[in-house]
Design goal:
The chain is built from five helices and two strands, in the order ααααββα. The protein is mainly alpha-helical. The radius of gyration is 15 Å and the shape is globular. The mean pLDDT is about 90.
């Protein structure tokens, strides 16, 4: 079921992958990667008008696990969230090469 809460796996990597695999989670983190605060409305726009209920649910979850916080100017990554996104950067680089290779074939 798409909206079920991540299971309480004893393996930290599985818990992380379950959390990141939830609809919209990676997109929100990626859109906050530049460190600039975004309001709820701005995040909706930058996530291609994600459903308000899904966006709200994911922001609550991300805040609960300590990777996103609500600052005065909007939502931002925490230090932990910034570290996570930095670790996704090599995956983004690989994806860009993969897409280029696929397009050239």
């Amino acid at each position: 079921m798409e909206d079920a809460q991540p299971t309480a796996s004893r393996r930290p990597i599985m818990r992380l992958l379950e959390q990141l695999g939830r609809k919209g989670t990676l997109r929100i983190l990626w859109e906050l990667r530049d460190g600039l605060p975004q309001s709820f409305r701005a995040l909706r726009v930058s996530t291609d008008d994600m459903s308000p209920s899904v966006l709200n649910d994911r922001l609550k979850e991300l805040r609960a696990v300590g990777v996103v916080e609500l600052a005065d100017a909007g939502y931002v990554l925490t230090e932990s969230g910034s570290e996570l996104v930095k670790r996704l950067t090599p995956l983004n680089q690989w994806a860009n090469r993969w897409l280029d290779d696929a397009a050239s074939n």
